[in-house]
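User: Sequence for phosphatidylinositol-3,5-bisphosphate 3-phosphatase below. Tokens please.
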Amino acid sequence: MSVPRARSGRSTPLRESEPEKIEGDSSWDALEWTKVDQVSTLRPVPQGLQQLLFEGEFVIVEGHGVVLVNTDEAGDLYVTNFRLLFLSDGSRSVIGLGTIPLAAIEKFSRNGMKLPSAPKQIDKNPSQRLLQVIGKDMRIVVFGFRPRTKQRRAVFDAISRWTRPARLWDLYAFAAGTSRYSNKNPKVRLLNEYFRLLGLGSRCASPTTVEDGSFTLSNEWWRISNINSNYTMCSTYPFALLIPNSISDVEILQACSFRGRCRLPVICWCNPGTGAVLARSSQPQVGIMNTRSNADEKLVAALWTQLSGVRERRRKLYIADARPRKNALANGAMGGGSESSTNYSQSEIVFFGIDNIHAMRESLARLRDYVDTHGAKSSDGLSSFLRHGGWTWGGGNLSSMSASVSTLGDSGWLLHVQSVLAGSAWVAARIALESATVLVHCSDGWDRTSQLVSLASLLLDPYYRTFKGFQALVEKDWLAFGHPFSDRLGLPTVSGSESIPEFTRQASTGSLTSSPSRQSSPQTNSSHAQNNCSPIFLQWIDCISQLLRMYPFAFEFSSVFLVDLLDCVLSCRFGNFFCNSEKERHQAGVYDACGCMWVYLAELRDSDRRSRHYNHFYDASKFQGPLLPPAAALAPTLWPLFHLRWACPSEVQTGDMEAHCRNMAEKLSELQKAKDLAEAKLRETTSAVESLTDELRNEKLSSSSARDWARSAIKENVAIKRAIQALGSKVQFSEEGDCIVSIESIATEIPQKSLFSIADMRCGEKPDSPVYVARHEDEDDDSCNPICRVCESLCPLRTREGECRWPEGGCARVRSQFVGLKANFDAFDRLSIYDSYFDSQE
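Assistant: Structure tokens for phosphatidylinositol-3,5-bisphosphate 3-phosphatase:
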């Protein structure tokens, strides 16, 4: 379906009031108040601000000279279609405390108060115009505006219009689009998770599998049914359900009418090895007449299959009702109620006593007020050490200190967290230790039930304690099974219905002696019933943070990842948590029009392996099985990284063990990089030394070979020289390296015929006179060279055919002065050349 375009952010300009110059030296009066009355949406956005805006984000209203009362810091406040953006007046940096997404605002109101100042300036400091913003993320922020300006009204009107839009498509996520965080089909991921639970991990689903309905696979005990593929049976259940093999689709249709909102018992986790099952549903419609349903009883009985290897023995069935017993009985008067153990054989009914959504909402509000009152950065601008005579406990009085500490306990938040943890641990223990079947439900089966079954699955299955598994867990037990996120977060739905925002207007004049956040407006019973906002998902994340504190080695992700995930959910920057069911998200086209939170978080991790999302204590080998915390260990504490990050930021930074470990890991990583670099340089140096050593060895071998060759050549030259001298010739070497052979007549018995054939010599000297011939290296034609013919006639190693008997000799290789000489073998035959002529002489 087509998605409407987001409305424009253009608003009408406001009239400027006359500027007023206020004298004084406080932080308020240090501003140039002649320039702070500018409230505009028509002028272009400054270049520096444009770089801070997200894709699709635009400015609606801007005001200058606004003071963040919590920190007494002046700056500029911008209202965009996504958030309140507060920039410091000096550095122009974003102030995190004053920057809050519009969807994360729970309440906002206008107050008037007189800010404290120095004793001599009390009369000079007029009352200020305040805007109080209460966030769902534990922050209470107060912005101060000077009187007789239109800035506060403009900001208030913009927040009123954009915080609670009338249509779902007016949310920022639709204006931002998918961008680079495109969302793949979550139905495919749900089927892949079903395949894993059935032990069919080798199978992989695809969009084609979803469209043609070929995902109805099964194993020995359970199967995947497509009976709800069009959401006709139950509009708040997923398109695919995991049910027992022995139950047909017809029996499923018969059983669904007995449960509230047709949310019949289905399997949400199972163990193929033991056959243990964790199932969920809504309350049965027994009413005051204690009505029964054979189809429902048969379906529940099929959940607890026969124990493996034990004949005719069925496993124990536990039915865990998350509500207090009195609430279950009260619902029976309105057609609901709880099961009876007499109607479900071998069953045991257990009540966990977890309160409803309204109790959780009020509990978190009290905790938020407590943190704001005793925090270092309170919304009234006073530190806890400066309130009530210089100490947060009322001057240090023991009774007042006890009262303040009891305020934390009176909030009830930690008790609620403990109840959810205890119930989940009990369910996990029954399944892990007894291989039992546990059916969990509350009233509608989408709030407390989602908390219990997802937390129990997290304890049972180590896969859910990884990044990939945690995503599968949230998408299965919270999104697919219809937790009403739009109602709990106060967002519009597809039909346009929405929770009524709480706009409390208080007196515009007067003074406040305490934090504005503690001026709560009375609520009627009707407004209490209509407000369905509740921090159910936040409470579940808080429970996981408690488990991560108890088992720091069991989780791949860190507390920082949980906080970032909560911020994404509360800010509505992505569309994953829009609407109240899978059916509504499909009708609204959320998956195609909005970005995906999981892709965004994965990109943060992939960009840096040292990301703060990784738990550096994680060791998968230590916790490969279920986590079964004992009851004594289930003592929750405040989650500093979330509860105290706005009121006590310095304590969060100094007390975060993960941060210290992360810093140590970063330093270790830097040292490891330096070590790797040094080792790489060492390897390069070693390789260079080895290369030089090889070259030196080769040079030595070459030098040794050259020396051997030179010695051999010298010996050959000496031998040939002696041989020639024995023939009556003289051999001389000039300084230029030329060889001079002197031929003289020899008075022997040898005939007068010369030993040499020099008839072709060009020198013209007589045979009996000395003949001087020279062999030059640049003479290329050896055939016409006289010295060559002389040398060939003199060489004793030439055969009659003219071939050399000594081809490996130095004269043949280096073309010495004897190359090409032809010997007169008739004369050599009459000579006696002894071998001693060729003896080596050193």
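The mean pLDDT is 78.
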